[in-house]
UniProtKB/TrEMBL annotation:
SUPFAM superfamilies: Inosine monophosphate dehydrogenase (IMPDH) (SSF51412). One of its GO terms (molecular function) is dioxygenase activity. The lineage of its organism: Bacteria, Bacillati, Bacillota, Bacilli, Bacillales. This is Probable nitronate monooxygenase. InterPro entries: Aldolase_TIM (IPR013785), NMO (IPR004136).
Length: 336
């Protein structure tokens, strides 16, 4: 329905994403590596969305003391709970079934999350039925994102117990899907393939992207890049300003799975990739030089890449997470 100003009004009383997650607005903050922490997660949740604690969140050192993985995750979870009584989620990067190469981090994250009473999880990767079962056995809610989304993968996730599917378009930041299928194409395809609700991600930086996602059949949005340029995001202020100054046409493909704003490091990696270095070798070099931590958390533009979606032209200023949620969710309201 429309109001007098022509703004679209979407009633959220019956929105399945809000109902499943227990949130006010159907917006989930993406689980970004290195650049989430308790303050950011709580800020998004307090604004009515769902904050997500991503990998490598929180400080690894306190003074001269190094904090181990278990303690670091537990500290962040307890801090989130001290800052909000709203639902929030934890990210789980799924190991392939039968492979235990990421077992320690996954096991530690799951165990601590269960012990701390976490009920919402964003799983990323190919369906791992054992991890799904553990989460469901604990009464957990599963939001699943396939890195290379297909209708077959979405159906497998639904059958394995996923409550919500994230449909990822090639427009996204982070790890880029290997099929060049944009958000406008993948979202309705996944919506038609499953019975559970779908949330859209990839290039959603303003309310027009939200409206488009819902027009395509999505029942929520999963937003990363726009939340990087927020007051609460622990990303470097240098990084935030570089995102604001950059344009989508400036972005460089540094490998088949990653893109970056055109800083010095990205130009070097892009040159290697363009001149024939295999993508996995470029990714390895990026990882050896600190991965996303260097450019995004520390703001070292000469050393690290800054991964963003393709719609960064729409990001023109740093705002609070609350203001971002209000801006993107301005069409939504409850009506009894």
């Amino acid at each position: 329905m429309n109001n007098k100003e022509g703004k679209v009004i979407i009633l959220i009383n019956n929105n399945r994403v809000c109902g499943i997650l227990g949130i006010t607005y159907p917006i989930v903050q993406a689980a970004m590596n290195w650049i989430t922490d308790a303050n950011m997660v709580a800020a998004v949740s307090n604004a009515g969305g769902m904050g997500v604690l991503g990998p490598n969140a929180g400080p690894k050192m306190v003074g001269s003391k190094r904090i181990n993985t278990e303690e670091r995750i537990r500290n962040e979870l307890r801090k989130i709970k001290s800052l909000t009584d709203k639902p929030f989620a934890v990210n789980i990067i799924l190991p392939e079934e039968g492979v235990d190469d990421n077992g320690f981090y996954v096991r530690t994250t799951l165990n601590v999350s269960f012990e701390e009473g976490v009920k919402h999880f964003v799983t990323v990767g190919k369906v791992n039925r054992q991890v799904f079962k553990e989460i469901k056995d604990q009464g957990g809610i599963l939001i699943h994102r396939e890195l290379n989304p297909t209708t077959e993968a979405a159906k497998r996730a639904e059958e394995a117990g996923a409550d919500i599917i994230i449909a990822t378009g090639y427009d996204e930041g982070g790890v880029i899907p290997q099929r060049s299928i944009g958000t406008f194409s993948i979202v309705p395809t996944i919506v038609d393939a499953v019975d559970i609700p779908v949330i859209a991600t990839g290039g959603i930086n303003d309310i027009r992207g939200v409206r488009a996602a819902f027009a395509l059949g999505a029942e929520g949005v999963y937003v990363g890049t726009r939340f990087i340029v927020s007051d609460e995001c622990p990303a470097s202020d240098v990084t935030k300003q570089q995102i604001i100054y950059s344009k989508g046409t400036d972005l460089l493909s540094v490998s088949s799975t990653q893109r970056s704003i055109p800083n010095k490091a990205a130009q070097e990696y892009e040159g290697l990739y363009r001149n024939g270095m295999p993508s996995d070798q470029v990714d390895k070099k990026i990882s050896e030089n600190g991965g996303l931590r260097t450019g995004m958390l520390e703001g070292k533009m000469d050393e690290g890449i800054v991964s963003v979606n393709t719609a960064i032209d729409l990001i023109t200023e740093v705002k609070t997470c609350e203001d971002i949620v209000k801006e993107l969710m301005a069409d939504f309201k409850n009506e009894c």
